[in-house]
Amino acid sequence: MASRVVMPKLTDTMTEGVLLKWYKKEGDAVESGDVLAEIETDKAVMDLEAYGSGILKRVLVKEGATVPAGDLLAIIAGKDEDISAAEFEKLPSFQQNLQKPDQNKRGTDPLRDERFVKGGSSKTAQQVKASPLAKKIAKEKGIDLLEIKGSGPGGRIVEKDLLNSVGMGKRERHGEVPSEIKPLSQMRKAIVRSMAQSKIPVPHFYVVSDIDMEKTCEFQTEMESRGNEKVSLTDILIKSCAIALTKTPQMNASFVEDHLEYHKEVRIGVAVGLEDGIITPVIKGCESKSLGQIAKETKPLFQRARERKLSPEEYTGATFSISNLGAYDVHHFIAIITPPEAGVLAVGSLRHEPVVQEGQIVVGKRMQVTLSCDHRVIDGVGGAKFLQELKKILENPGLLVL
Question: Cβ of 286: how many Cβ atoms within 10 Å?
């Protein structure tokens, strides 16, 4: 029986994916579980597996194409099995991407028409959907519209598609300084959606604390000298936040329509910067893990995050997040909450500055943190109590190993 290969929807934020590479070609034998292709989601690059066995009868999407989640990519069927369009034409994605009104009138089967396979086309430049301005630019620059992928409604070619194809911005046409137009990556598109959904509807408020990090730095050095698992400041922050969250459970909660959900498990996401965005790998069960266990887990997890090899389970489900820009010499910043989390901690750099101790001015190590809170879940006092607990732990790091 024929089976469909579709672009999977792996997370709530994923609306489309990019088919980077086909590992199988038409006519290849396929077993269930075989890797068919490599796809790029909004968070990772991962393999697409077959859910049926047979022959890869049709490949309907070319490499490099951006495809909405749920859309048809290929068809697997028996060697002699008929895969006429009738079996698939009820799919909305099929109608949107394969069937064309003029071609349907002629009774052509789009699954057998090479114009709709692997991006082929027999259209002329005049028949391509494009805005008048795009057509004008194409004529001026000698650009073949058949070679341009449209980003407008229904694949319509618009001005920016033409400008991008010749590597110029609007101002170059007027003799001014040229600029580069770079299409949004899947990750950047996801960030645009999620941040807009967070900052606008979520009522943020912020609480700031300045923390004496002298003892934490000594503790970190002592841990390394004893030959223990190398512990980073991020590891210490994860464990410290986990303890503070158990002390202030209202911070480890979420707003859900008409009620609040208090999470029994502490799952902390840590923002990892990539070239075209950020990804937030999640350390789960932090309340029951030792500092050493957390340190052992984060190193390979963060490495896979940088290589964009995380599975969806590894970057979803956080109940609280940490964003640490201290390595970039950032003294203070404010982070945006990612719903349904109720808070995120923005961590600044460790800095040396004069402080007063027992009436004497000495050089101290300080770090500023800013807590962003969802006011629907927690109030100012609750946020202040969380920072109070966090500060107590970081200024008395022996609490981390009790």
Answer: 24
Q: Are 352 and 329 in contact (CB under 8 A)?
A: no
CA gap 152, 205 in Å, rounded? 38
Res 42: pLDDT:
76
HSE-up of 216 (CA within 13 Å, CB side)? 24
Tokens in use for 360? Answer: 């004497």
Please name every residue paired with 366 in a beta bridge, in sequence order, or none if there are none.
Answer: 212, 351
| 2 half-sphere exposure, CB direction, 13 A CA radius | 16
Please name every residue paired with 269 in a beta bridge, in sequence order, or none if there are none.
282, 321
Q: Which residues are catalytic?
A: 375
Residues of the chain with pLDDT under 70: 84-127, 132, 154, 165-180
What's the first-to-final CA gap in the chain, in angstroms? 60
The residue type at 362: V
Task: Give the separation between CA 390 and CA 239, rounded to whole angstroms.
Answer: 10
Tokens standing for residue 234: 């991020």
Give pLDDT, residue 88. 54
- Give pairs for 130-135: CB < 8 Å, separation 24+: 130/156, 130/157, 130/158, 131/156, 131/157, 131/158, 131/159, 133/158, 133/159, 134/158, 134/159, 134/161, 134/162
Q: Are 50 and 74 in contact (CB under 8 A)?
A: no
Residue 332 and residue 281 in contact, taking contact as beta carbons nearer than 8 Å: no
**Nearest-angstrom CA–CA distance, 81 and 57:** 9
